[in-house]
Amino acid sequence: MEFIIRSKALYSTWIYYKPDRLLFDVGEGISAALGNKIYSIEKIFLSHSHVDHIAGLWGFINTRNNAMGSREKDLEIYYPKNSKNITEYLNFIKSMNRHLRFNLSINEIEHNDIVELKNNRYLKVFKTRHTPGEKSLGFQIIEKRKKLKKEFSNLSGDEIKKLVQEYGKDYIVEDYTKKIITISGDSLPISPDIIEDSDILLHECTFIKESDRKLRNHTSLDEIKELLNQISPKKVILYHVSSRYNRLINKVLKDLTNEFENIEFHIVHPEEISII
Ligand SMILES: [Zn+2]
Ligand SMILES: [Zn+2]
Predict the structure, then answer these.
(1) CATH number of the CATH domain containing 201
(2) Lower CB count within 10 Å: N or C terminus of the chain?
(3) What ligand is nearest to the CA atom of residue 217?
(4) From ligand 1's centre to the CA of 101, what distance in Å?
């Protein structure tokens, strides 16, 4: 299990990524749903200030402070720079929970910022296109890796061993980065340049039928397909689906799997918690 996700457009969205102990958005109902797992979360990233993405934060902080668990574990929150609504909300939460047992660090982030994670990974922030006048962000988890330098690729195992003995391991390897996960937040389609080479794509897909979309601030299924004709992640998780499509989810999943054979698809059902 890598992800636990709850997402129903306009109601609640939160994405728990277990390997790096990260939480993306904090829609309502999260604490009751995750129970003791809330103590394993180390960093929270908020994509924007819409209430379906932040309403659960007060409960989360309060529960983490008072329920039975590791109440002293530090918690870091990251949110879009200069978001007045989130700043006020965080101030309210702090004033309602004056005696926190844990260190709460609150940080502003913006486009291109980097947050170091554990295990040679870091998170990169990118801006998204959502509601005018509302800062919204997407997130990418990137891993720092090493590979054999090209000039040594034809050498045998023994020859490489010899080089390592003589010059050290760093002599034969070079650094590169690998995009692991891209998360869209609420947005119109993310640019293929950003997603490219990402193993896993979590993209919002509020509208399954293009004709239902009145304002251009969310993504439709047609746009997702257009995107997947240009890039090919190993795994695609669609979330933030409107509950008007509850009965279509299984069919859409089947159709996508048929159309894009090399991609593993998941759609977060608006009425269910998905474990992926
Ligand atoms: Zn939303
Ligand atoms: Zn939104």
Answers:
(1) 3.60.15.10
(2) N
(3) 2
(4) 31
